[in-house]
Amino acid sequence: MSGLSTHVLDAVTGLPAPGLTVSLRDADGLELGSAETDSDGRIASVTGGEIPAGVYRLTFHTGSWFSAREMENFYPEVTITFAVTDTSRHHHVPLLLSPFAYSTYRGS
């Protein structure tokens, strides 16, 4: 099985995005875990453990995070759907975030 981590970088300030809630659901919509980014914008383990092969949806609750900072934003949430096929390696899904754009990639 494979672990899952994430981090969020605020592209406006170039700093980590602390206090952003992230949740993980499986392909059936069952919530498997939820956590908040730490002071470095990271979540070391979204589920607190390993996840088996399958399709998952990682949702970053960006609207409330921007609202708490009194920043206008276009995306109330960002959902990244990805597949875990190689359970021998760790999976890392980072998010580079601004109020009107975002990008992601498969990290290591």
TrEMBL record:
It catalyses: 5-hydroxyisourate + H2O = 5-hydroxy-2-oxo-4-ureido-2,5-dihydro-1H-imidazole-5-carboxylate + H(+). Gene3D superfamilies: Transthyretin/hydroxyisourate hydrolase domain. The keyword Plastid does not apply. It holds the Pfam family Transthyretin. Homotetramer. Keywords: Hydrolase, Purine metabolism. Residues 4-107 form the Transthyretin/hydroxyisourate hydrolase domain. Belongs to the transthyretin family. 5-hydroxyisourate hydrolase subfamily. This is 5-hydroxyisourate hydrolase. GO terms for biological process: purine nucleobase metabolic process. The lineage of its organism: Bacteria, Bacillati, Actinomycetota, Actinomycetes, Mycobacteriales. InterPro entries: Hydroxyisourate_hydrolase, Thyroxine_BS, Transthyretin/HIU_hydrolase, Transthyretin/HIU_hydrolase_d, Transthyretin/HIU_hydrolase_sf. PANTHER family: 5-HYDROXYISOURATE HYDROLASE, URICASE AND TRANSTHYRETIN-RELATED. Its EC number is 3.5.2.17. GO terms for molecular function: hydroxyisourate hydrolase activity.
